[in-house]
Structure formats: C-alpha cells, structure tokens
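Issue: copy button drops trailing tokens. Both records pasted manually instead:
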Amino acid sequence: MAFPDAAFEDQRAAFAQSMGVKLDKRTGADVATVAVVCTIYFINMLAVITMIWNRNYPPLKAKCVPLLASMFVAMGLCFVGDFEANGHVQLSGSGLSNCRGIGIWVHLVLGFCAISGMCALRSLMLYQVFCRNLPCRGLKFYLPIAAYLTLIFTYGIVTMAVNEKNAVYYFPELDLCAADTPYKTATVVLVWVTQGAVLVSYWFIRNIRSSFNESREMAFVTAASLTGLISTTIIQYVVPTYPLLLPYRMTMSYVTQLAINTTWWGMFAIPLFNCLFRRQKYLTEWTAKLRQDGMQREYRVDSSVGMQPIPDNAAPKTRPSFAHKESDNNNFYYSNESGTRLCAPSDSYSETGHISGHESAEDTQITCPAASSTNNARQLV
C-alpha cells in the first residue's frame, strides 16, 4: 500500500471545509493500521496452514478445520471491506470505488454475515450431535441454514437492484462510500439479525456437558463478537462522519478486527498450541477426558495404552463413526451415527463400559444405559 497522495488529500480537505465538515487527511497512521492488520492476517494464514497440515490430529480435527479455514477467508473479505468503508485507503482509480460490490457483497454478505453464519453453524452442529443425538443432516438441520442464506443473499441482490443513491454509493469529492440513512439503518438491522442467530444458536447448546467445554467456548466467542458489534454500532450513530476522522476510523477498524480475530482464535487456539508444543502429552490428556466422558468411540480414538487414534481397519463395524463415513458431514468430528446414543458420564459406565489399559481396540465397548433417544438426549443437556 502506497502512502496517501498529498495533493489528492488537500483536494478532499478543501471540499470538506466548503461543506462545513471536518476531515482528517489520510496519513501514515492509516497506512500503519492497514499494515498491522495485514500482519495479523499473515499470522492467521500460518495458523490455517498449520491446522490443515495437522488436520488429522484428533483435538484439531474435532474443531472442524474446513469450517475454521472458511471463516479465515470470510475474515479476509471483511477486512478488505473494512478499510474501504472506514476510509483508510484511496478508492478512486481502483475497484474499491465499487461501493455496492465491495461494501455489500464482499464486506457484508461474504464477510461479516458469513462469519456470523459459520459461528451459528458450529453451534448448530454441536446441538445436533450432543443434544439431539443425530447426524448433521436432515430437514431440521438444513432448514435454518437455508433460511439464513436466503436472507443475506436476498439483501445483497435487492441492494444491487435499487438505485445506488437509495443504497450505498461512491462520493467522489470525498473519495468515500456513502449510504442513504434508511438503507444504513436496514444494514445495521441485518447485522444484528445475524448476530441474533449466533446468540440463539448458543442458547441451544448452553447446557452441553463435556470435558472440552464446548458451551463455554461458544459463550466466549459470542461475547467477543457481541462486544465488538455493540462498540461499532455506537460509533456509527454517535459519530456518523467517523470515516473522515482519524481517531474514529482507526478505532472502528481495530475494534472490528479485534472482535473477529478473538472470535476465530477462541475456537481453536488451545488445541493448536498444544499440537505444536505438547503434541503427544496433550493427545494423551485429551483422550483421557474422552474416556471419562465415555465418548472415545465417537471421536474414534483408542482407549488402550498409549491412547493412539484408532486405525480405520480397527474400528468396530457395529458402531461406525459418522465422522469417517463418506457423507456431507465427513469434516465434522463431533459426530454420531443416527440411532447411536451419546451418553453422559454415569456411575453405570464403569460397570458396563469399563476400559482397561490392556484391552484391544476391538474389545473395548461402551454400553449406554437402556433409554429412549429422547431421555438419553436429556442426559446430555
């Protein structure tokens, strides 16, 4: 990114003064803001490469690496939209002056809304597996996803169909994207609706009982995204000309990116760190927790000495793991074949599903207490 054109910035400042509006010229501080966030995304890219390289490491695989990688792409798109919307870079003479294409489709639909949607999707998958004891498929699973996609894509299509002056448009004299007030309000409402989807999805998994604290993890993720959204909404309405003012546009960019990156890292930071620095020890501890929960078969890890992943040819044929079947859900590791029950730890486990350090993978069995699927689901929540 080049330093701002001084002559061009003088023209912007003169026009703003003629309108009676204060304008802070783009300076090295704007360049530094973009550079800092680019550095963060370079680190994020290294994290994604590491996750993909170690995608078969069970604690990481349980976090659904494809979903996290997809979120990284959406975060990058959101970042591109951020430095366009917040006025950090010169828009004229580049594709960034396409305010509807970049500002709505890249920044909003494929960026922020996609991030919120994937956070909600993760909660939905956890709910489907841990609370309903069902695989991640079926009408009740796909219907909310379809409704969410219909909402955000309809919004994007309508934005492209209406006159740009009634939506978002390029203001050449100030070299900024401007939005019609009713449209701006509608956009903020849409953003809060997507955040509402995250909150609702978290509410459904709030009582999940597991040693891996999935509900607490999602609570942290939800709190981080909610805090960032509240802060940026306040700035947008208290200081509507924030892209013209250096302190506010920097605050908007840093708060947004801090919230997004905290949300993303909160989903996988612990297993990634341990994969790099405590690989075998953490795997042993992780598998021990599975054994305590009675869910090692659902994660396809061996309960024998050493606690190594179960080879595919050693997996019990009577209880195949849904995560390793060739299906639409083969990337999600918290999985369970339809009709197979996931049981919460209980006193009866030591009697019916006792795991001995000398048992082979084929001999180790977990027997769930006899109960209906509904009653068994209630044990988990």
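Record 2 (pasted manually too):
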Amino acid sequence: MVEKFLPEEEQRVEKNLPFLMKRDLSFSIKHRISKKADFERLYKEGKRVNFGCYLLIFLPSSLPRLGFSIPVRFGGAVFRNRRKRRIRNLFIQNLSDLPEYDMIFCLIKKPQNETIELEELKGIFEWLKSKKFQKDS
C-alpha cells in the first residue's frame, strides 16, 4: 500500500472535513434575526404575504436572515420546535438561491396535516427564489 504524505495543513483539513461539511449546513448567527429592534422594524415596515397557515413578513437587507413567530397557543414546545426546525432546514437548503431579505415566518393557523404543511413551506421557498417574488417586492 502506498502512503500519501500530505503537508501538515492539508492533514488538518482532511481530519476536520466532517466538521467543516456540517458547519456549512448549519444555521449561523449572521443569518438569524434575534434582536427585538429588528423584529419590531419588520413588523412595522415589512411587506406581508399570507400563505395559508403562515404569514411571511419581509424587508430588504444585506443578506438573507430568518426569524420565527410561533405562538404558544398553537401547541407545546415539541410542536413549535418542529415547525422552526422545518423552516430552518429549508432555509439552509435554499440559502444560496434566496434573495437578500430579512424574513419572519409567523404561524397564523394550526396546520391540519403534516405533509400539506411541508408542501406549503416548500412552496413559500420556491416563491422566494422565483422572479415573481422579485417583481412583487
């Protein structure tokens, strides 16, 4: 067997490759809306589009950022966290194609069916990536 000798730096990168790959698919802090002032600005000045169970509020910004508003009245922590996780995963998957907007996903009606809700969320992200969104905003 022929051993390959790599420079020290390449060995380090090779060793950490699984971590580096995972980090690219993470929801980084720069893509989160977390400050109260940012939420208030979006609620006050943002455009709104209703998508059945979800209301999307958005405003132009320097990079795509995401926030959530899922009230306690719709269910327990498991229900709310599952919705956030789904939206976050779709956001990460579509990040390279999304326009540079701050977005808040507000749950306004409890979904009747998990699969219908997932299709609705996918439709929202397809709309965000489309040229129609660019014209509407």
